[in-house]
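User: Predict the complex with pyridoxal-5'-phosphate.
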Amino acid sequence: MPVHLYGQCADMDSFGRIGDEFKVAIIEDAAQAFGATWRRSRAGSLGAAAAFSFYPTKSLSAYGDAGCVTTSNPEIAERARVLRVHGSRQSYHHQEIGWNSRLDAIQAAILRVKLKYLEPWNEQRRHCAALYDRLFADAGLISAPAAPPIGLLETQPQAHHIFHQYVVRARRRDQLRAFLEARGIGTEIYYPIPLHLQACFTYLGYAEGDLPQAERAAKEVLALPMFAELRSDEQQYVVTAIADFYS
Ligand SMILES: Cc1ncc(COP(=O)(O)O)c(C=O)c1O
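Assistant: Here is the predicted structure with pyridoxal-5'-phosphate placed in the model:
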């Protein structure tokens, strides 16, 4: 289950090879990747099925909880349709146990309107991301002679990244975050606790130190303000504040 994190597709060439080798279906977590592509194919069409989230913080967001599944496999589509309405094909007849996962009509109506704006919003986000990259370079924050205080995340050439989030890796991340908050700049950490250290997964028997890359990422990542209407002077304010912190 590849996660297209922050709006960039996971390396789907590698996942394709894993799927072929082990004969397993690839299910995409496309919650953050509306409009993202891998080798020009859309997130949501790259595996056997995909799940999207319309949670209010998402790029294509409803006014409450909502989501959808995409697939081009008729059997999976049929099964998903049945499971979303209590395992029922015909009212009051239940072949299996499912859920109530119907999409409210009011949410669907909101999403239909917002969908028209998705492409321009994504383009604006990409524009904002490119400007952040430039501002960080100009401020000398990513190319210091010793270890630079800010690390930008890699963008793969095969991927069309839609920057659901603009995330950097930051030295002294938690102090930086508090400093930015005092200047009125909201940031977020996606995600502070790696999965193997979540309480709900203790039964798997992992301990701190078992997955050092994930643990390091959890201590360094910081999501900066990112939304389609973000202005260039606001981005400059963010990067200046970060430069002040490290000066
Ligand atoms: C990558 C990812 N997967 C899954 C989810 C879960 O989405 P939902 O809360 O709509 O089920 C989210 C949303 O928070 C997400 O960002």
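The pocket of pyridoxal-5'-phosphate is lined by residues 3, 29, 31-32, 53, 55, 67 (CB under 6 Å).
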